[in-house]
Amino acid sequence: MDLYSIKQQAFFLNLITRLQGEDQEEREYKAVVEAKQMATSALLSFTHPPPHLSTSTLLGTSPSPWGGGGTSTGRFPNSSSFAKSPLFSSSSSLKVSSIEIRRSLHFHMESSALLQDACATAVVMGGAYSLVSSFDLLTTHNFIDQKLSRKLVHVLSGLLFMASWPIFSTSLEARYFAALVPLVNCLRLLAYGLSLATDEAMVKSVSREGKPEELLRGPMYYVVMLMLCDVMFWRNSPIGVISLAMMCGGDGFADIMGRRYGKVKLPYNQDKSWAGSICMCFSGFAISIGMLYYYSALGYLQLDWGLVVAKVALVSLAATLVESLPITKVVDDNVSVPLTSMLMAFLLFGYRTL
Ligand SMILES: Nc1ccn([C@@H]2O[C@H](COP(=O)(O)OP(=O)(O)OP(=O)(O)O)[C@@H](O)[C@H]2O)c(=O)n1
Ligand SMILES: C/C(=C\CO)CCC[C@H](C)CCC[C@H](C)CCCC(C)C
Question: Where this protein primarily resides, as one coarse class (predicted)?
Answer without folding.
Answer: plastid
